């Protein structure tokens, strides 16, 4: 069988400096964040008692934050107000039966199109509630501005954006990190090095819901929102030997580029003294196992970042508008980068002209990106400024490699602009 390709090349125009530094060693871990091992039973009981006491003491903290039922109302209200660019659905329920609501934003919500999908996941840790608030702001801001703002319009028209404001509503209610069973959901995914939590029956319902979601939907990229530090964290999160080390995944350049988009669009994340450029390799910061980020990249074809968006895990609610202003451009630019950079195209049979759900690889990068089932469209993020050889695969057949240069120009408008390379229009045949 012969194959031919249609590539469109999108060129990235904004120059980010200092995105290659890896950062000095740092010894102090933010308290309570991402400890590599699962807590033991006695630890967990002690912790629970402590936390129950704390949650009574700290009810004031939640003033000005949405309760779980406020969040549900806000999601449904959004769905009514912005019905022609959104769809509301649930991916499952928490241990205590709270629906895990998702807002999908697109000009054709719920319909398959040859467009990439991006997701944001908030409140993975129950006591990190800033993300769930900002994600509702984000949805509403896009709805209010997509007719007049070019970035909002670009997202609505070219991306399917899925927003899960809270992955852990029970943890939020309990004012603690873990879910109702006191399990850290960001340690509950199957792990590439340590199959300790590969027992499917032991998996938490919130984790299972996310895993099933990614089996049904193909996401090209995503980010989860955390608190307690200010840094954009990228894979790998774990090392094979359990030591703290820079442990690069095959797409290290791509991930550093993505993480830099977030940090450099942020109010001051890129100015971090602890993390040069405001980004870090997860394992270099401190290794974790069973995290959601690495699982996304390995098993779901999805390039996921873990974003620590505020030093204070649970700031006073009157700081939320400022935190929204600090993170707004980062959230928008990261989602938009999915169509402003990388390579995008479709795979067709040259005999029948039918879309072929094949895959593409890049020479020198040991990672396969699958094309979509319906339209055979593929969307692959790549760091700009390099020459790439792209190869298409279907069954045992392989196309001739195609070379592309993803450009970088001195054009410095402060926003991305979009341009197409050669080869647009007429498909090349092989
Ligand atoms: C994680 O917690 C355990 C037990 O509380 C402790 O012994 C270990 O040093 C911690 N690991 C990290 C990376 O902080
Ligand atoms: C949504 O509805 C508004 C108001 O009726 C309309 O102006 C707009 O074009 C619609 N947007 C889409 C994507 O259909
Ligand atoms: C960023 O700005 C906030 C608010 O002004 C400040 O508290 C924080 O220390 C700053 N962080 C960095 C890395 O500059
Ligand atoms: C084409 O690219 C693939 C990987 O994408 C690589 O394995 C193969 O060697 C390349 N072929 C040539 C002729 O360079
Ligand atoms: C490529 O990655 C796979 C895992 O995805 C691994 O099994 C294989 O050894 C890697 N190949 C090379 C050449 O590194
Ligand atoms: Zn967290």
From TrEMBL:
Give the signal peptide as a residue range, or say none if absent: 1-21
**GO CC terms of this entry:** extracellular space
| A single MF term (Gene Ontology) | metallocarboxypeptidase activity
Superkingdom in the source lineage? Eukaryota
UniProt-annotated catalytic positions: 308
Q: Pfam families recorded for this chain?
A: Peptidase_M14
Keyword Metal-binding applies? yes
Key words of the record:
Carboxypeptidase, Glycoprotein, Hydrolase, Metal-binding, Protease, Signal, Zinc
PROSITE patterns cross-referenced by the UniProt entry: CARBOXYPEPT_ZN_1, CARBOXYPEPT_ZN_2, PEPTIDASE_M14
Which cofactor does this sequence's record say it needs?
Zn(2+)
Please give the residue ranges the record annotates as the region Disordered: 408-430
Peptidase M14 domain mapped to chain residues:
64-338
Question: Biological process GO annotation list?
Answer: peptide metabolic process; protein processing
Question: Cross-referenced PANTHER family, in alphabetical order?
Answer: CARBOXYPEPTIDASE D, B, PROTEASE M14 CARBOXYPEPTIDASE
Into which family does the record put it? Answer: Belongs to the peptidase M14 family.
The protein's name: PROTEASE M14 CARBOXYPEPTIDASE
């Amino acid at each position: 069988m012969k194959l031919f390709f249609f590539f469109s090349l999108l060129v990235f125009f904004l120059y980010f400096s200092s995105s290659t530094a890896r950062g000095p060693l740092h010894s102090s871990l933010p308290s309570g964040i991402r400890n590599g091992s699962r807590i033991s039973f006695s630890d967990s009981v002690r912790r629970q008692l402590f936390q129950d006491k704390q949650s009574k003491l700290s009810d004031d903290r939640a003033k000005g934050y949405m309760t779980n039922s406020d969040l549900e109302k806000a999601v449904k209200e959004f769905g009514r107000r912005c019905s022609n660019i959104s769809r509301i659905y649930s991916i499952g329920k928490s241990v205590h039966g709270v629906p895990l609501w998702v807002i999908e934003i697109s000009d054709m919500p719920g319909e398959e199109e040859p467009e990439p999908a991006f997701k944001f996941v908030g409140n993975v840790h129950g006591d990190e509630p800033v993300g769930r608030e900002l994600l509702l702001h984000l949805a509403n801001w896009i709805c209010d501005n997509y007719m007049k703002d070019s970035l909002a319009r670009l997202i609505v028209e070219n991306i399917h954006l899925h927003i899960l404001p809270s992955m852990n509503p029970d943890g939020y209610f309990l004012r603690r990190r873990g879910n109702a069973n006191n399990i850290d959901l960001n340690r509950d995914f199957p792990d590439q090095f340590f199959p300790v939590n590969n027992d499917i029956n032991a998996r938490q319902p919130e984790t299972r819901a996310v895993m099933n979601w990614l089996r049904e939907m193909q996401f090209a990229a995503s980010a989860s929102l955390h608190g307690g530090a200010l840094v954009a964290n990228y894979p790998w999160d774990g090392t094979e030997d359990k030591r703290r080390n820079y442990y690069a995944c095959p797409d290290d350049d791509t991930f550093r580029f993505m993480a830099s988009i977030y940090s450099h669009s942020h109010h001051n994340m890129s100015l971090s003294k602890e993390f040069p450029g405001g980004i870090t390799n997860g394992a270099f910061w401190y290794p974790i196992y069973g995290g959601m980020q690495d699982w996304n990249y390995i098993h779901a074809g999805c390039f996921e970042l873990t974003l620590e968006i505020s030093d204070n895990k649970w700031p006073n609610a009157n700081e939320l508008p400022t935190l929204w202003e600090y993170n707004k451009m980062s959230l928008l630019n990261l989602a938009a980068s999915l169509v402003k950079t990388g390579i995008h195209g479709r795979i067709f049979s040259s005999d029948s002209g039918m879309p072929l759900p094949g895959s593409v690889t890049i020479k020198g990068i040991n990672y396969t990106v699958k094309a979509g089932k319906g339209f055979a469209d593929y969307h692959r993020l790549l760091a700009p400024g390099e020459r790439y050889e792209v190869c298409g695969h279907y069954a045992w057949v392989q196309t001739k490699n195609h070379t592309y240069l993803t450009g970088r120009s001195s054009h410095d408008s402060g926003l991305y602009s979009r341009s197409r390379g050669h080869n647009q229009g007429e498909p090349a045949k092989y």
